[in-house]
Design a protein that fits this description.
Structural class: alpha/beta
Order of helices and strands: HHHEHHEHEHEEHEHEHEHEHEHHEEEEE
Number of helices: 14
CATH topology of the largest domain: Rossmann fold
Largest sheet: 7 strands, mixed
Number of strands: 15
Number of domains: 3
Strand content: 15-25%
Strand order of the largest sheet: 7-6-8-9-10-14-15
Shape: elongated
Length: about 425
């Protein structure tokens, strides 16, 4: 029986309430199959003629292999009609997602991989294996399903704890984890590859722009924020003053009356973009003359281009590891509601999908060609760039001052 293409990109919400996270349904989508009833082969010219005559189903049923227009049209139409299985020559990528553990990131990761495969313009199969949670039994079961389906490598969107659990399981297949940095989990098998951000490196790149001896850290009681604060505590020369925004409805006016920030100090913003904008506006409103405000990838977000006023961000420096992307890939992500320019999860997942594709093709060089990235010690090494905001755009910041702001200790208080 003729084998045709399967594309799984769309998630199914399990709850009608808009506030609930989107999860993958345990019931797979229905598939269709185009059966070839002709005893005669159909070469590229034959397939072109069927397309020109709008004989779509004959084209789908008789397609065997082909590049260029024929391959691209087959991929597009087979995805549209949700046909059953891919041609033998199609590329195959497995995606492991614990949907309950990573919530909305499930959709971002799945759509990123799908967009990457679509950008190649060739037949492919992408299969999503949902472990639902990151318990050892759940992850082990998902790995066995991936192996049974004939995959020898998979992209796995895991949390730090999930990556540690998976390392203890020790799967035989290669795992590509875009959501975790190699340094975060300690022991990792040689067949694990990582694409997460090294926030400590971003902070180190930001320190020349900041007064490390007079620093106030604004953070929130969430995992990523606390992780960056812990990294900053290890890097700054003396302990920073810390302001944790515990209340989601924090009164910023009252906060700044109670929290005194010295002139010439720097602030590190480990807060989400909306709260970052509020903090910056209060700095301006209270006429606090900062040496600088700094932040990591957490605030490389288009909201920072629209929410604050220009005076609020004039001394703001933001580190980012997102590089220039392929235009076709960027546009396809946009169609699937991913933003490859700013969404870190989408960018890292796309880079790891590209590495899987290279290795499926026999290229084991430690380099992701499409993204111009190198891999070192099984971790993608992302170049770090520092940006400022000018005219509602992120622009590269000038080099830091020759004399770092934290080169001299502040005068002792009398």
């Amino acid at each position: 029986m003729k084998r045709l293409l399967t594309l799984t990109l769309v998630s199914v919400a399990l709850s009608a309430a808009p506030s609930q996270p989107k999860l993958f349904s345990p019931i797979g989508a229905a598939t269709n199959e185009a059966i070839n009833l002709s005893p005669l082969p159909c070469n590229v010219n034959c397939l072109e003629r069927l397309l020109d005559e709008d004989k779509i189903f004959s084209f789908l049923a008789r397609y065997e292999d082909g590049d260029g227009r024929v391959g691209a049209e087959y991929q597009r139409l087979a995805a549209f009609f949700n046909l059953a299985t891919p041609p033998a020559s199609g590329e195959r990528i497995a995606v492991l997602i614990p949907s309950e553990s990573i919530g909305r990131y499930s959709i971002i990761v799945a759509n990123s991989v799908g967009a990457y495969l679509l950008s190649k313009g060739k037949p492919f199969e992408m299969r999503v294996f949902d472990s639902f949670d990151e318990k050892s039994d759940s992850l082990d079961r998902a790995v066995k399903e991936i192996e049974a389906a004939g995959f020898n490598r998979a992209l796995a969107a895991l949390t730090i704890e999930g990556a540690r659990t998976m390392a203890a399981i020790g799967p035989a297949i290669e795992l590509y984890i875009p959501t975790v940095n190699r340094s975060e989990i300690g022991y990792a098998p040689e067949n694990f590859y990582f694409g997460g951000i090294d926030y400590a490196k971003q902070l180190e790149a930001l320190t020349p722009y900041a007064n490390g001896f007079r620093t106030t850290i604004f953070d929130e009681p969430i995992g990523l924020s606390q992780k960056i604060t812990a990294a900053a505590d290890a890097i700054l020369p003396i302990p920073a003053t810390r302001v944790t925004l515990n209340n989601p409805r924090v009164n910023f006016s009252q906060l700044f009356r109670a929290q005194k920030i010295e002139a010439g100090a720097s602030i590190l913003l480990n807060t989400q973009p909306v709260k970052t904008s509020m903090v910056l506006s209060q700095i301006t409103f209270n006429d606090i003359r900062l040496a600088s405000a700094i932040s990591t990838q957490m605030n490389y977000n288009p909201l920072l281009l629209t929410l604050p006023q220009s005076d609020d961000v004039k001394n703001l420096y933001i580190a980012s590891a997102i590089g220039p992307g392929n235009m076709t890939l960027r546009d396809l992500n946009q169609l699937l509601r991913n933003d490859l320019r700013f969404d870190w999860t989408a960018y890292a997942s796309s880079a790891m999908a590209a590495m899987i594709s290279q290795r499926n093709g026999g290229d084991y060089a430690p380099r992701v060609e499409l993204f111009d990235l190198e891999m070192e010690d099984n971790q993608i090494n992302y170049p770090i760039k520092i940006y400022q905001i000018k005219n509602a755009r992120f622009v590269l910041a000038p080099p830091p001052p020759e004399k770092p702001l934290n080169e001299t200790l502040p005068p002792e208080e009398e």
